[in-house]
Amino acid sequence: MNARIFVLSFMFVMNMATAHFGVAGDDLGPSANAPRRTQQNDSLPPRQSVQVVLAPGVSQRVELIYPELEPDFSSRLPIADHYGALAEAAHAGDGPAATYLYESMRDCRRAHRTRAALDQAIELMRKRGMLQTADMPTPLTVVGDEPVETLIDRQLLKPFESCFGLNNEQLASAEDWLRRGVELNEPKAAALSYKSAQSNEELINLYWIRLRWGDCYTHSGLSSVFFERWRSAAAAEPSDLLNAYAHQLLFVRLLESARVMELGRIRQRFLNEGQAQLLLLENKLTSDELSAGAQRAAGLLAKQGSRCLPM
Fold it and tell me: Where are the beta strands (DSSP E) in the chain?
């Protein structure tokens, strides 16, 4: 039986011009999707700073930064014509090129490889209202208000035109390019790798790549990693609970500071949930441990570079 889906929940959004696809939103924290500076949004306000109070007598100034200019890959289509140059750049240390190759190869697996297969998919969409991309074992019935020809253009024609000419080896290289992006400390590659992390240590390293870039929402993720390790370990390390508290304290105080300064994209839900988790952690620590946790938080903030994307 064919599954029914709402087209907005399924969309294969193949926007090769910016390669902004594949990153989940709220499950990674809002700044996982923070817009990087482009020619269109380079009028963002200048850097500003805010004093973050972690505890009485413990505070640190944080610089609120805006993402750097994002590389423009819109001229690199079809991708097959530019794969070699992009691969060479990635091997030479270009993190955005490596990440772009990963996203492109991953999504091009959905594009039909031959004109005959494309024509068959277009006919299926026109006659029966069913979408079948190259990676689908069975077609799916599309439900929605978007015109059929618009869907055909975006879901079938544009992917075919962008991906035509790629060979099996290139399409199979997606995960290799993602690993290369992580090796080069590319923040987007790190976010795309969260769910595939094989250990707590690997996940902590990925979070720190984003922290050093300025994704301060990542402190909440790190707090969760340390808290779960503390809670599940047979012989729990006290330092795990202290680290969980320090990262959660940073997450909450940074959000509170951003709200006071009326900067960025503060989300009240994240703040409410963060405050509740912080209270839970506070109740598990002594007053001396709370003081030590605040000092550790200040050290973590200095380690990451005392800079954050606006929240």
Answer: 4-6, 48-55, 58-64, 130-131, 140-143, 307-308
